[in-house]
Write a structure and sequence with these properties.
single chain, alpha/beta, 8-stranded parallel barrel, two-stranded antiparallel ribbon, 10 helices, 10 strands, binds NADP nicotinamide-adenine-dinucleotide phosphate
């Protein structure tokens, strides 16, 4: 087997390629670039593609996948495609509708993974981020256990092979796991995770429940000014990361990705640059020593690039709990 296609088993019998390609388009970049980049990513070897309703690129990404199927590079079953339920669709009666909208844009029959994007329901409507006339966010109260039951129905309808969550804290995950009548556990929790926020408690908890932790912002995020504090430290410029990279004749990005591989996570990397995409795939053929791992662990300083602090008044804001 091609070691670059290493997979992790999911608790529902499916499996996921450990390294995924992120498709969130940074500000000022035209969405058409997602089409070109996704085709290049598939050519570079990526088989796990992470997207979401929020990213507004599903038409382009779907077209890229279908064109790589049409030219014989891959078959549909080779691709592991993730989409996410945006919080304005948290009401149970809107969940399947949201997935069907994604499938319609993608022109695919099913997704491999459907995630609740955030545990913070927002009022339904046309606005992605709904606000009142004073600009105040319009929160909504929905029992996430009801949302989860609607996610389970999407799996049973064959529209999503697997279902999971994203940005849930431990308490919120436990609430789903302890739901009376639970049919399917979340297969994963996709959360921000990198050496500055190593999520070791969440990782231990997920492992104990047979839930895969999928790391995003593994390279320290795209530093998009809409979401990320521009004064936050740049992960890939960290001297410890740089020193380890130099020792192994690799780049800091490769060390940051290899760190997650050796911790047993699935992890995403976004690059729309062909050379860096290929570089991000070259992480299966070297090994960090226990000392390297310890030094990388020592970099943890609870820096969260995606704090979404505007959402902090939401009763379900997940990042107030420290696990
Ligand atoms: P990321 O993957 O940590 O970092 C991407 C940034 O690193 C881009 O600016 C990219 O630039 C650069 N880069 C990529 N490879 C590099 C390399 N080898 N050397 C140097 N720089 C490199 O962060 P992200 O884009 O914020 O997140 C990745 C994916 O995670 C997203 O696309 C999305 O799919 C997912 N995500 C999910 C959530 C959620 O709430 N569930 C939140 C955020 C992100 P170039 O493109 O120019 O190479």
């Amino acid at each position: 087997m091609d070691h670059r296609q290493q997979r992790v088993a999911l608790n529902d019998g499916h499996s996921m390629p450990v390294l995924g390609f992120g498709t969130a388009v940074p500000e000022k970049v035209p969405v058409s670039e997602a089409l070109v980049a996704t085709k290049l990513a598939i050519d570079a070897g990526f088989r796990h593609i992470d997207s979401a309703y929020l990213y507004e690129v599903e038409e382009e990404v779907g077209l890229a996948i279908r064109s790589k199927i049409a030219d014989g590079t891959v078959k549909r079953e080779d691709i592991f495609y993730t989409t996410k339920l945006w919080p304005t669709f948290s009401r149970p009666e809107l969940v399947q509708h949201s997935l069907e909208m994604s499938l319609n844009k993608l022109q695919l029959d099913y997704v491999d993974l459907f995630l609740i994007h955030f545990p913070m329901p927002l009022q339904p409507g046309d606005q992605i981020i709904p606000r009142d006339e004073n600009g105040k966010l319009l929160f909504e109260t929905v029992d996430l256990c009801d949302t989860w039951e609607a996610m389970e129905k999407c799996k049973e309808a064959g529209l999503a092979k697997s279902i999971g969550v994203s940005n849930f804290n431990r308490r919120q995950l436990e609430m789903i796991l302890n739901k009376p009548g639970l049919k399917y556990k979340p297969v994963c929790n996709q959360v921000e995770c990198h050496p500055y926020l190593n999520q070791s408690k969440m990782l231990d908890f997920c492992k104990s429940k047979d839930i895969v932790l999928v790391a995003y912002c593994t390279l320290g995020s795209s530093r998009d000014s809409r979401w990320v504090d521009q004064n936050s430290p740049v992960l890939l410029e960290d001297p410890v990361l740089g020193g380890i990279a130099e020792k192994h004749r690799r780049t800091p990005a490769q060390v940051a990705l290899r760190y997650q591989l050796q911790r047993g996570l699935a992890f995403l990397a976004k690059s729309f640059n062909e050379k860096r995409m290929q570089e991000n795939f070259q992480v299966f053929d070297f090994e960090l020593t226990p000392e390297d791992m310890k030094a990388l662990h020592g970099l943890n300083r609870n820096i969260r690039y995606f704090e979404d602090s505007e959402f902090s008044p939401h009763p379900n804001y997940p990042f107030s709990d420290n696990e």
